[in-house]
Amino acid sequence: MAGTTGRKRRKEQSEYFFDYSLLFIVLFLLGFGMIMLYSTSSYQAAQDFNDSAYWLKKQIFAVVLGLILMIITANIPYQFWRKFAVIGYIVSAVLILLIIPFGREVKGAKRWIYIGGISLQPAEVAKLGMILFLASLICTMGRSIRNMKGFMLVFALPLPIVLMVWKITQNLSSAIIILGISVLMLFVASPDYKKFIIMGLIGLAGAALVVFVIVTASSTEGMGFRSERILAWLDPEAYASGKGFQTLQGLYAIGSGGIWGKGLGQSMQKLGFLPEAQNDMIFSIICEELGLFGAIAIILMFILLIWRLMVIANNAPDLFGALLVVGVLGHIAIQVILNIGVVTNTIPNTGISLPFISYGGSSVMFLLIEIGLCLSVAKRIQLKEL
Hints:
Helix content is 68%, strand content 5%. It has helices spanning 2-13, 20-49, 54-74, 85-102, 122-141, 148-156, 159-168, 172-189, 194-216, 225-234, 245-257, 282-315, 319-343, 361-379; strands spanning 14-16, 104-106, 109-115, 118-120, 382-384. The chain is globular.
């Protein structure tokens, strides 16, 4: 009797955690994203495809598939995926290389491959693969990551994938995100912050030098499109008919929205004036239709999402689980910052989507898989009554 009572008491004092708050925030962002996607893309979709819901239908398919994969991933113990960490790194590299012979070019960018009639962006696979690989690698190396040799090894291994994404897919923004994820995971795992301060200063100095060189050489011909983007960032009005056109139209949309916005569906810029409104520039349409109030509300939702991920990472049962969540947190946070920075012309135009909201099947599907990993980690957090 005493043994039974003791087991019952231990069962009552210990239960497992499920983060419903994280799930609600993600579902809210998905629902809001589909509403804004239809509002933003319906005019252009009707013009191009004679179907105002063309992009919405494709996004719904990706969201449903992503939710199914999220549920499956959330119910598999996250430690199971550790054995696939190296495979994930190799598969990411192979898929990126397959773009060279089999990639399909869309609007001047060769970033997709088609498998069974479904388009797949290898850069999104690489982000998830890098999170798994680095989480496993850092746990395997243990304390050796604290010495310079171990630190440089962990820092160097993501670089081939970063360079391949940049050069083969011509996708600098995704390369920056993968590098940012790697640095953040290494930052969390390494107690020596001096290295990161030095790296940050070197990075800022390098970026400033690049901008200075481009500005001083702006009169030369034959500049690459990224150089033109930097010049358009510094003076969009001077490039209003070229690289600065999208930025200016996005700023017009933000400015015309005011505090409360014109109302859902009432945007003028989406009527053929703002290129790729449903993709990279959807935040500007949110500002135009829902105003500053709507923009701040969405930013707060992303802050809540990042906060919930921080809570899970801080309470994860082990280092591997914590690093998985930190990698996902870094992916989402960096992508949100880059997207809003581009739309508001705070940084040069890099062509990056807003997580869960912008159109993009591969992006939303792999983001939901990553959320499934975080929910799996959260489910293994054991709550105990004191």
